[in-house]
């Protein structure tokens, strides 16, 4: 069992409509795959199914099982919900998911890599270690001789052998034309000894055990040899004219072309002889096709209608009065229906369509004949259209025939077949013809004899540019008639049908073939993969994996599309795709392929063990040349073989070659024509020996060293790759180990052109290699030797004796003959570079250096890794303990972090630029890029998260880190300047950075990130330990929202709250750095970042108390919450608490709702905090004991909190009326004079708190017009005067609570004395409570019923089934506007609402107001609705100028919290079904919010969005009440 932090877990996010069937995901065995729900699926009842079998069960491709969900947090949101697979079995597995009525809403595939084992101890051979060599099996000779010939692979350093098929070959002797798939070829047996598959299996096992070599072979499913006995006995297994009659026209054309061949051979055509040597001959052939062949065979007749008989049939129907049957479902209009048997003139038309289209005017014979005449004309027209289509086919056929002849007989790179003959016909035949020659006319008669036509079998081949997912031999394809097939005349294409039931013999035969192969070989190469029907390959490979679960499957694809490649890799579970260096036209492209096919960049970031599953490319098997392609020596030069092999060997993937390449065989070893044997291994072989090879033959010695190096690099974790194009011919490739930081740098000087005929530059640029060169791993170059010139041997596949490799291995720099000198230079204090000057890096040369960090850097990196290993064991490798570490590093970081308070964490993790500037600093700014969002660690982590996932080492952050220590110093210095535990954390970071600064600069981004990740995660762990179990054990979303408390709650440089009573316990103090005086330093809550974070604009009464429950009480910050409640209580004036606090001295008492939010928070505190009622007894130091008093000194006037509450209630009942102090532009430059008059009272009839006027805005929708141009200046956009619905809910909640407190003896007042009509009266709180209860629905419910007695203004109703936004507004129509505020009242005072009415109103709000993230602030049907907020815009539009529509449509996030809570509350009262649907809605909304929060660099939720969730640049990026209200949903859910 791996330690938790080492187990590799990949997370795949599922989203609705996500079809990932063409996306490749690869995993190693032992990984865990987690499926998690994306935003579009959270909250839905999603089912995930997979055909990955349960442990111990066999794989069945079409058997899917349901994966069970894990909800680790036990909470109701889906942010952590996952189902998982522990992948332990190699292969390809499908998954899909659905919800509701949709069985499949998306899906894809997972490919699990096989585990390969070699040696007597069965040790694992990683896929990237594979070095393979291909052998043409027929060139191995007797089985007894195989070990001697195969030893060449072993001694050349390969660890895998690929055999072409070992079965009996067909007549053509092509390695891939098999006569009998089940028989081991007798040609490998000796006289008196018949070898079998068991003997081969024994040899394969011996190679695995004793030579540490694996063996694979080909499987060929697409065709069989044309002379296979079994295909003659079972012609139904091929495409013949009986089971595939659509091929009949193509067969006729094929036979006609064959007869054209015989005619040319027999001299029938004066215009053309058997020798085709120039363009005129090609024109003559084209002319013969058009003038002789095509007119004779009349292929168009196979597609046409017999006109006369069709007209006769139509006439009979008309005469009999037959009416068309309109229920046939056929498409309208007359069209030809192709005869499925493809007989001449066998096609038809639908007579129902004919009867519908051609209607006689009457039933008279004359009208019927007239109609038949029109019908005849239409048929003739349709036949002409068919003839035109066939003409196009024949044009293409002529082009393909001529093109084929050009390649085979004229092209320089073609086979140059010579004269036309029956052995080498004009073009390859497309069909078998197992009968004696006859005339074309006689052959045409065979078309009506199925016992004969079943034996005319289509040959196989490939089609250039065709869709590889389409079977070109099936109906619908015209490949054969258009002659587009590049045909293999020795093979018959196999016809499997849709399944075993369509061709039982073929499926059984090929399954047996597969099982034999899988039994004896460790893997297979799927030949002709791109043309093999996918369902066939799937079934056969399933059978193979039943025999050998860790089957290694390779294939070569020619689809031309990575996405289509992925289809094959996914469906078949291909382990490695063959890629070829020969596809590169120059060394630059060759180097690019190395970079493309594997490895991370050097200096890549350390990835977490749990991370997203990322799409990838197919694992590559990168070969210098494949066995069926041209010889590189023919296209390049012999000297290029070694450096190109070295380039390939440095790739971080499987690599390999084909036998003959290393021996410098200067021609292609033909899979068809080659019959000679491979030479055997002899360590002492002489250059002149054709039948033997040894270490000095060709480049074998060099290849052995390169293969050994390749395997060592993969086995030891050199997974990082850097490719440097030094000049046009020199490529330097670095492989780097990220744990030990050793590198191997291989410099290859290619020789694409022969140095004997091409002048290469004598100037070789110097190389600069960072670090210390420990040794020259190898240096090698191809040189001439006196071994004679090449002559092709008749018996053996011999190479060029005139070349060999000079090689030295594991030598010092001083011993090198390639390196002239090596000087140590320094790039700054932390990077030592060796400058290498070359003297004999000639074309064809290779040199590889083993490089380590210089000893000091190695020690420092080791020390960093040692310290980091306290966070994760993955740093253990390469770690070295510092013998004398700084004192601060001796203590675990977690211990230091445990001393930090949550206020300290605000400094460590967050603080925006304005907050930091208040302390004289600022967020770190990268010139030419941008500043981080936070000065704390989260600012960096938000950016590094994307950089890390993509290994974006070119990012400006990485560049800044490489260029200097500025960012490093910034991170530690801003903490060390502080006092206490924060300074200690800063010292810990500074000590780690002291190591970091002196390692090579290219490693600094990776280790800087590793240090920060470790610090950040340790800080989070410490943070959550300071929070209650709701956060600690909560979902990821809950914990992210909990961090919002750290974002918003902090202590600034200057006190933001007025002082608390000195009698209050646990009030934090500090010494003012300027005055030296002791002062309180309470945490305050910022309204939003970055706009409302500092100074007088940090603390707002309304924002603070809407946010306080979510961000402080639910996160366990009870004491800090208490301090804020008491501080605001001390600022009470006029019975109100201020909106803008301004430290109490600059407070504005211009809002009606803040005091009610404060009272609601006080209620929440009492209910939530253990012994919370004690706060009511706490002393409050009053700043303004009377309305008109100047600010009092702290402690001058104090009273218990319950008296403050009583004062608030009494003042409201009495009535509040005052004019704001300093009224005018000094405090508000936009408000009109009347707006400074504040009036609030309680309606004696209803108990509703009522107030405001049309020139001020006393609720949260407080936008004041600012535009002179649009004439809205001084006019509130939404005054909401009268009785605002949320204030009624809040006041009802408070009064009810006060009554309950009084009943428990916890509140000393049961009512208040007020003056009414000149008399003092006592109003009981119970009476007030009941009054609001009785009045609410009659006043606020909009039934829309014409006779509703409670509806005073039915003319203003434009939405029924809602609650009014206010009652008694100065503009009565405003009362009837649909806004989201009523849901606040539903949450705080649900008793006001009847369930059915509440539900109707909530459904209307959902339909009209709910956006992707927030709630529209106004009904989109309202005439003044505008959902896009653009504050700076000043134009003539009254409704939008200068952001007038701030609350007239834009979608605010905090109301969505109340809406969802209300929905949940009333859904519970509607029954289980309704609640389940509501829970789905809530989860879905929450998922969108979580997605936004996760992706936001601020790690917060914004103040608002524009319509439909669009980004609003004028919104706060993270807002306290947005975070708080969503967290409350999760708490209540």
Describe this structure in words.
The protein has 1533 residues and is α/β, with parallel strands linked by helices. Helix 25 packs antiparallel against helix 26, helix 37 (1395-1408) runs antiparallel to helix 38 (1454-1468) and helix 38 (1454-1468) packs parallel to helix 40. The protein contains 40 helices and 60 strands. The relative contact order is 0.06. The protein has an 8-stranded parallel beta barrel with strand order 13-14-17-23-24-25-28-29, surrounded by 4 helices.
Would you spell out the secondary-structure blueprint of this structure?
Elements: E1 9-14, E2 19-20, E3 26-27, E4 32-37, E5 46-50, E6 65-66, E7 70-71, E8 81-86, E9 91-99, E10 102-112, E11 116-118, E12 123-125, E13 131-135, H1 146-155, E14 160-163, E15 167-169, E16 178-184, H2 197-210, E17 214-219, E18 223-225, H3 229-233, H4 248-265, H5 279-297, H6 307-319, E19 336-337, E20 348-349, H7 351-357, H8 365-410, H9 440-445, H10 450-453, E21 459-463, E22 485-493, H11 504-520, E23 523-526, H12 534-547, E24 552-555, H13 562-572, E25 576-580, H14 587-596, E26 600-601, E27 610-612, E28 620-623, H15 632-635, H16 641-649, E29 654-658, E30 680-681, E31 692-693, H17 700-715, E32 720-725, E33 730-736, E34 743-749, E35 767-770, E36 772-784, E37 803-811, E38 819-826, E39 832-838, E40 845-852, H18 855-868, H19 893-897, H20 902-909, H21 913-918, H22 937-950, H23 956-963, H24 966-976, H25 981-996, H26 1004-1025, H27 1029-1032, H28 1036-1048, E41 1049-1050, E42 1069-1071, E43 1078-1080, E44 1084-1085, E45 1088-1089, H29 1101-1113, H30 1118-1129, H31 1154-1168, E46 1179-1181, E47 1198-1200, H32 1201-1214, E48 1216-1219, ...
Parallel strand pairs: 1-4, 1-27, 2-10, 3-10, 13-14, 13-29, 14-17, 17-23, 23-24, 24-25, 25-28, 26-32, 28-29, 30-31
Antiparallel strand pairs: 4-8, 5-6, 5-9, 7-8, 9-10, 11-12, 15-16, 18-22, 19-20, 21-22, 32-33, 33-34, 34-40, 35-39, 36-37, 36-40, 38-39, 41-44, 42-43, 45-60, 46-47, 48-49, 49-50, 51-56, 52-53, 54-55, 57-58, 58-59
């Amino acid at each position: 069992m791996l330690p938790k932090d080492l187990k590799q877990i990949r997370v795949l996010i599922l989203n609705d409509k996500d079809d990932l069937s063409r996306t490749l995901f690869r995993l190693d065995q032992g990984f865990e795959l987690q499926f998690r729900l994306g935003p579009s699926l959270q909250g839905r009842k999603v089912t995930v199914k997979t055909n990955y079998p349960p442990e111990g069960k066999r794989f069945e491709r079409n058997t899917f099982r349901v994966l069970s969900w894990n909800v680790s947090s036990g909470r109701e949101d889906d942010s952590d919900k996952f189902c998982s697979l522990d992948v332990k079995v190699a292969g390809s597995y499908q998954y899909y998911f659905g919800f509701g009525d949709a069985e499949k809403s998306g899906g894809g595939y997972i490919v699990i890599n096989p585990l390969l084992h070699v040696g007597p101890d069965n040790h694992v051979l990683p896929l990237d270690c594979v070095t393979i060599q291909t052998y043409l099996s027929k060139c191995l000779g007797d089985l007894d001789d195989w070990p001697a010939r195969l030893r060449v692979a072993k001694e050349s350093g390969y660890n895998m052998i690929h055999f072409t098929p070992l079965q009996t070959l067909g007549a053509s002797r092509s390695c891939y034309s098999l006569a009998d798939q089940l028989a081991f070829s007798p040609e490998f047996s000796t006289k008196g000894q018949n070898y079998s598959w068991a003997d081969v299996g024994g040899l394969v096992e011996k190679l695995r055990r004793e030579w540490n070599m694996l063996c694979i072979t080909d499987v060929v499913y697409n065709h069989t040899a044309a002379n296979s006995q079994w295909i003659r006995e079972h012609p139904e297994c091929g495409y013949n004219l009986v089971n595939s009659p659509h091929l009949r026209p193509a067969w006729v054309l094929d036979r006609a072309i064959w007869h054209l061949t015989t005619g040319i051979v027999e001299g029938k055509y004066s215009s053309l002889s058997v020798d085709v040597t120039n363009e005129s001959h090609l024109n003559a052939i084209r002319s013969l096709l058009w003038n002789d062949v095509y007119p004779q065979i009349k292929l168009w007749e196979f597609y046409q209608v017999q006109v006369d008989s069709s007209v006769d049939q139509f006439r009979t129907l008309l005469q009999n009065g037959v009416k068309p049957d309109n229920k046939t479902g056929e498409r309208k209009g007359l069209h030809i229906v192709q005869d499925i048997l493809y007989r001449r003139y066998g096609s038809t038309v639908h007579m129902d369509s004919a009867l519908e289209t051609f209607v006689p005017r009457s039933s008279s014979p004359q009208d019927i004949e007239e109609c038949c005449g029109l019908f005849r004309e239409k048929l003739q027209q349709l036949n002409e259209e068919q003839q035109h289509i066939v003409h196009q086919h024949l044009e293409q056929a002529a082009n393909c025939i001529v093109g084929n002849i050009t390649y085979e007989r004229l092209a320089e790179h073609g086979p140059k077949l010579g004269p036309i003959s029956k052995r080498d016909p004009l073009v390859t035949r497309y069909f078998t013809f197992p009968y004696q020659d006859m005339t074309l006319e006689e052959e045409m008669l065979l078309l009506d004899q199925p016992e004969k036509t079943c034996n005319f079998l289509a040959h196989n081949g490939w089609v250039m540019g065709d869709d590889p997912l389409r079977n070109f031999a099936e109906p619908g394809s015209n490949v054969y008639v258009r002659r587009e097939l590049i045909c293999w005349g020795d093979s018959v294409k196999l016809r499997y049908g849709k399944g075993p039931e369509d061709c039982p013999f073929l499926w059984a035969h090929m399954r047996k073939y597969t099982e034999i192969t899988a039994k004896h070989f460790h893997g297979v190469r799927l030949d002709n993969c791109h043309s093999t029907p996918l369902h066939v390959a799937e079934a056969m490979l399933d059978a193979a994996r039943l025999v050998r679960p860790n089957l290694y499957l390779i294939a070569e694809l020619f689809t031309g599309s990575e996405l289509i490649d992925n289809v094959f890799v996914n469906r078949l579970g291909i382990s490695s795709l063959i890629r070829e260096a020969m596809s590169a036209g120059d060394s630059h492209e060759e180097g690019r392929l190395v970079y493309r096919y594997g490895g991370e960049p050097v200096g890549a970031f350390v990835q977490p063990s749990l991370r997203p599953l990322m799409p990838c490319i197919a694992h590559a098997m990168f070969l210098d040349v494949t066995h069926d392609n041209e010889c590189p020596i023919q296209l390049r030069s012999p000297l290029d073989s070694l450096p190109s092999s070295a380039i390939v060997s440095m790739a971080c993937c499987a690599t390999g070659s084909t036998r003959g390449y290393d021996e410098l065989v200067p021609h292609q070893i033909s899979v068809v024509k080659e019959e000679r044997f491979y030479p055997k291994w002899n360590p002492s072989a002489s250059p002149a020996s054709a039948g033997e090879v040894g270490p000095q033959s060709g480049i074998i010695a060099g290849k052995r060293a390169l293969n050994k190096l390749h395997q060592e690099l993969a086995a030891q974790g050199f997974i990082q790759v850097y490719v440097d194009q030094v000049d046009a011919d020199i490529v330097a490739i670095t492989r780097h180990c990220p744990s030990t930081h050793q590198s191997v740098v291989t410099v290859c000087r290619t020789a694409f052109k022969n140095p004997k005929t091409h002048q290469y530059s004598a100037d070789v640029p110097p190389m600069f290699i960072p670090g210390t060169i420990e040794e020259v791993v190898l240096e090698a170059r191809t040189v001439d030797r006196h071994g004679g010139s090449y002559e092709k041997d008749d018996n053996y596949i011999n190479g060029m004796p005139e070349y060999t490799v000079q090689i030295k291995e594991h030598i010092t720099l001083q011993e090198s003959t390639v390196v002239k000198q090596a000087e140590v230079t320094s790039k700054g204090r932390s990077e030592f570079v060796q400058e290498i000057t070359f003297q004999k890096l000639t074309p064809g040369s290779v040199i590889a250096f083993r490089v380590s960090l210089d000893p000091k850097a190695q020690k420092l990196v080791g020390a960093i890794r040692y310290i980091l290993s306290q966070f994760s064991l993955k740093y253990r490798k390469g770690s070295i303990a510092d013998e004398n570490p700084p004192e601060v590093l001796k203590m675990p970081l977690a211990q230091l972090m445990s001393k930090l308070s949550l206020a300290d964490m605000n400094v460590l993790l967050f603080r925006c630029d304005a907050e930091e500037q208040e302390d004289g600093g600022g967020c770190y700014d990268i010139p030419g890029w941008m500043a981080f969002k936070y000065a704390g660690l989260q600012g960096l982590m938000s950016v590094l998260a994307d950089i890390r996932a993509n290994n974006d080492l070119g990012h400006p952050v990485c560049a800044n880190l490489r260029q200097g220590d500025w960012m490093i110093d910034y991170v530690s210095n801003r903490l060390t300047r502080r006092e206490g535990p924060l300074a200690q954390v800063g010292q810990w970071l500074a000590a780690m950075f002291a190591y970091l600064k002196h390692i090579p600069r290219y490693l600094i981004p990776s280790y800087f990130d590793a240090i920060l990740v470790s610090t950040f995660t340790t800080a989070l762990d410490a943070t959550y330990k300071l929070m209650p179990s709701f956060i600690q054990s909560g979902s990821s979303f809950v914990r992210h929202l909990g961090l919002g408390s750290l974002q918003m709650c902090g202590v600034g440089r200057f006190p933001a709250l007025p002082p608390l009573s000195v009698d209050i316990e646990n009030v934090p103090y500090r010494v003012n750095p300027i005055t030296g005086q002791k002062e309180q330093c309470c945490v305050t809550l910022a309204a939003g970042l970055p706009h409302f974070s500092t100074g007088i604009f940090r603390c707002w009464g309304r924002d603070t108390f809407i946010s306080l429950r979510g961000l402080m009480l639910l996160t366990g910050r009870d004491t800090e919450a208490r301090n804020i409640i008491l501080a605001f209580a001390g600022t009470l004036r006029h019975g109100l608490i201020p909106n803008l606090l301004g430290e109490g001295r600059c407070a504005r008492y211009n809002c009606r709702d803040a005091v009610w939010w404060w009272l609601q928070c006080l209620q929440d505190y009492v209910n939530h905090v253990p012994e919370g009622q004690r706060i009511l007894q706490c002393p409050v130091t009053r700043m303004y004991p009377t309305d008109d008093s100047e600010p009092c000194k702290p402690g001058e006037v104090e009273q218990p909190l319950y008296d403050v509450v009583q004062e608030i209630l009494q003042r409201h009942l009495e009535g509040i009326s005052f004019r704001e102090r300093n009224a005018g532009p000094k405090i508000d430059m936009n408000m009109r004079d009347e707006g400074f008059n504040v009036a609030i009272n309680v309606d004696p009839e209803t108990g509703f708190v009522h107030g405001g006027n049309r020139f001020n805005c006393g609720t949260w929708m407080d936008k004041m017009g600012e535009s002179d141009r649009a004439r809205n200046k001084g006019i509130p956009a939404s005054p909401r005067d009268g009785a605002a619905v949320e204030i009624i809910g809040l006041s009802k909640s408070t009064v009810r609570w006060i009554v309950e407190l009084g009943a428990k003896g916890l509140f000393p007042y049961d009512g208040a004395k007020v003056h009414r009509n000149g008399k003092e009266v006592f109003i009981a709180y119970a009476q007030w409570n009941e009054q609001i209860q009785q009045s609410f629905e009659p006043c606020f419910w909009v039934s829309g019923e014409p006779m509703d007695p409670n509806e005073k203004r039915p003319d203003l109703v434009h939405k029924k089934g809602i609650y009014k936004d206010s009652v008694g507004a100065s503009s009565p129509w405003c009362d009837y506007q649909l806004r989201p505020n009523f849901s606040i009242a539903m949450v705080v005072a649900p008793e006001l609402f009847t369930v059915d009415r509440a539900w109707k109103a909530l459904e209307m709000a959902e339909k009209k107001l709910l956006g992707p993230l927030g709630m529209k602030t106004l009904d989109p049907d309202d005439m003044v609705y505008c959902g896009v907020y653009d504050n700076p815009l000043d134009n003539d539009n009254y409704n939008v100028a200068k952001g007038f529509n701030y609350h007239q449509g834009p979608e605010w996030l905090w109301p969505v919290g109340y809406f969802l809570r209300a929905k949940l509350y009333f859904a519970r009262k509607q029954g289980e079904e309704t609640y389940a649907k509501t829970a789905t809605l809530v989860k879905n909304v929450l998922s969108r919010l979580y997605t936004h929060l996760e992706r936001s660099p601020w790690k917060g939720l914004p103040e608002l969005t524009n319509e439909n969730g669009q980004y609003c640049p004028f919104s706060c990026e993270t807002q306290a009440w947005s975070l708080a209200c969503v967290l409350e949903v999760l708490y209540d859910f």
